[in-house]
Design goal:
By secondary structure, this protein is mainly beta. The protein contains one helix and seven strands; from the N terminus they run βαββββββ. A seven-stranded antiparallel β-sheet has the order 1-2-7-6-5-4-3, with no helix packed on it. The longest helix is centred in the middle third of the chain and has 14 residues.
């Protein structure tokens, strides 16, 4: 499929307990109260993460089709990672959004919450 980006995946799971790891997750609905509540819930979910990855690619904003721990990413939105089967399996934070000279560079930190 041509719409699936070529994604470089780096497993950083050994650093899950590292206090230096970015702790901000990003629901940005534009409604401050709702964003704060959702982000608080997402942040609390992080302590249940079983794996963590850095994904890097060029192209669309979603790493659709990328395989992590046998799970195929279907979409990422409002801080939530869903499989192609529409199952919530983790949370994410965008590190680079439409960056670089091309304006198409993407980088994302993903936390998987599946055992």
């Amino acid at each position: 499929m041509s719409n699936i980006p070529k994604v470089t995946v780096t497993d950083i799971s050994e650093h899950l307990d590292n206090a230096a790891l970015p702790r901000k997750l990003g629901a940005r609905l534009g409604l401050e109260k709702q964003d704060t509540r959702i982000n608080s819930i997402l942040k609390s979910m992080r302590k249940f993460s079983t794996r963590a990855y850095v994904l890097e690619w060029e192209g669309s904003r979603s790493p659709r089709g990328t395989m992590l721990d046998g799970l195929e990413i279907g979409w990422t939105q409002n801080g939530v990672v869903r499989t192609s089967g529409n199952e919530d399996v983790g949370t994410y934070e965008r590190i680079i959004d439409q960056g670089g000279e091309s304006g198409r560079e993407q980088k994302m930190l993903i936390f998987i919450h599946k055992p």
